[in-house]
Structure formats: C-alpha cells, structure tokens
Design brief:
By secondary structure, this protein is an alpha/beta fold. It has four helices and twelve strands. The longest helix has 39 residues. β1 and β2 form a beta hairpin. 32% of the residues lie in helices and 15% in strands. It has a six-stranded mixed sheet, with no helix packed on it. Strands 7-9-11-12 form a four-stranded parallel sheet. Strands 3-5 form a two-stranded parallel ribbon. Keywords: ATP-binding, Glycoprotein, Leucine-rich repeat, Membrane, Nucleotide-binding, Repeat, Signal, Transmembrane, Transmembrane helix. Its main location: membrane. It holds the Pfam family LRRNT_2. It is a single-pass type I membrane protein.
Length: 257
C-alpha cells in the first residue's frame, strides 16, 4: 500500500469514528433534554423531582435522578422512567420524544395526567416494551398508532376516562402479553386478538362486549346459560309438583264428600 492509499484509509477510519462519537454525544444530549422537558412541563406539587438538577455535567449524572434507570451508570442514556404515584399534573410531555432512541419502559401511573394520549407517542418512542398510564385522568380515544410500539409486551391504560373502541389495529401487536383497559368508558366489540386475555382487563366498561367478557364469565357465558336453564327446569318441576299436590288434595276432598 502506497502512502496516498494509507492516508486515505486512515482518513476514512477517523471520519467514521468522529461521526460515531458525534451520534453518541447527540443521543446523550437528547436524553438530558428529554428529562429537562418533563420537569419543565409537569407540575410537581410534592417536589418529587427535586433531585433532577441539570447543573451537573458529569458522565451518567441523570442516572441518579429519582425514577430514572439507565443502560449504564457511565452514560446518560435512559432505559426506564418510573414516575408512579408522584402526583404529577399535566399532559403526557412531548419532551419524551427526546428519549425515544433509548427508552424501553415508561410508567406514569397513579398521577393526575389529563388530556389525551398523544397520537405520536409510539412514533416518539418506538422501542418501548412496557407502557403504564393507568390511574390517571386521561380522556379521548385510544390511538391506533400505539401499534408503532411493535416491541410492546405490556400496555396498561386502566382507570382513566378513555372512550371509543379498542383499536382493531392492535392485532399487529404480536408481542403483547399483558393488556388492561379496565374501568374506562369504552364501548364496542373487543377485537378477537384479545380472546385469550384475562377478563379483568376489560371490566368496568359498560359498552364493551365480546371476547373475554363473553367467554370468561360474561352475561351470556356458558356458566350463566347453564344457571338460567337449570333455574327454568327447576321452576317447571316445582310448578308440576304444586299442580299435582293441589289435584291430589282436591281429589281426596271430593272423595270424602
């Protein structure tokens, strides 16, 4: 290899290394921006996010934040956000999109989050494996775009004020194992893809029907049908016995006369 070719090879290698470092640095800055935006957007009356301070610029400093878990304590890449029962107020922060390249677990349950679930949520964070937005005050419909979180294993939207139907598009969430929309204001038929799921995940929605609500204890389940039939047969038998008893008594009285 002559000198010019060697120089070109080294130049290419250093350029690629520089681009990689630039990408990693940008991603780290995005995760810091994500958490900063969350703190700025949500009201925190109990100061649960008080140790989210951004004047520290050491490697992995955000990994010491309450409710934050990182891929590594040596870098600012957020793996999970667990802000359950922090009593936070506001909507689901758009700043979450800056955590989208690294975030896999999102738990915002038991807060006072209002408004609707953003249509773009799973475009912001396509690698989410677990989403828990339960026990808030979220309203509106369930976005069909949640299917863009194609790695999703768990989705909990229970105990909110969600309305409309369960999107049929959820059939494409092939990895989904746990699902709950209990205690909302949903209506319509439950998509067939949920036939094998627990009934408890759909209870508390007066307008929902089908799927687990029928096959596992719904109003017209096999068990209830059996009870209805048994009650009918029992009632008919009782009526026959009473009729026979009355006839027998009347016959005896007539014979004595």
């Amino acid at each position: 290899m002559d000198g010019s070719n060697a120089f070109s090879s080294w130049f290419l290698l250093l350029s690629l290394l520089g681009l990689q470092l630039l990408f990693v640095s940008s991603q780290v800055e995005d995760d810091v921006k994500c958490l900063g935006g969350i703190k700025e957007t949500l009201k925190d009356p109990q100061n649960r996010l008080s140790n989210w301070r951004f004047d520290n610029k050491t490697a992995g400093f955000i990994c010491d934040f309450v409710g934050v878990s990182c891929w590594s304590m040596r870098e600012n890449r957020v793996l999970g956000l667990d802000l359950q029962d922090f009593k936070l107020l506001g909507g689901i922060p758009e700043a979450l999109k800056y955590c989208g390249k690294s975030l896999q677990r999102l738990n915002l349950s038991s807060n006072y989050l209002t408004s609707e679930i953003p249509q773009e949520m799973c475009n912001w964070m396509p690698f989410l494996v677990s989403i828990d937005l339960s026990s808030n005050e979220l309203s509106g419909s369930i976005p069909p775009t949640i299917v863009n979180c194609s790695y999703l294993n768990e989705l909990n939207l229970s105990n909110n004020k969600l309305s409309g139907s369960i999107p049929t598009e959820f059939d494409s969430l092939k990895r989904l194992k746990k699902f709950s929309v209990a205690n909302n204001k949903l209506s319509g038929r439950i998509p067939e893809c949920f036939n094998g799921f627990d009934r408890e995940g759909f209870e508390g929605n007066r307008g929902l029907f089908g799927g687990p609500l029928e096959t596992k204890g719904g109003w017209m389940s096999k068990k209830n049908v059996g009870i209805i039939v048994a009650a009918g047969v029992g009632g008919a038998a009782t009526s026959l016995l009473l009729s026979f008893g009355l006839w027998w008594c009347c016959s005896n009285q007539h014979g004595k006369v």
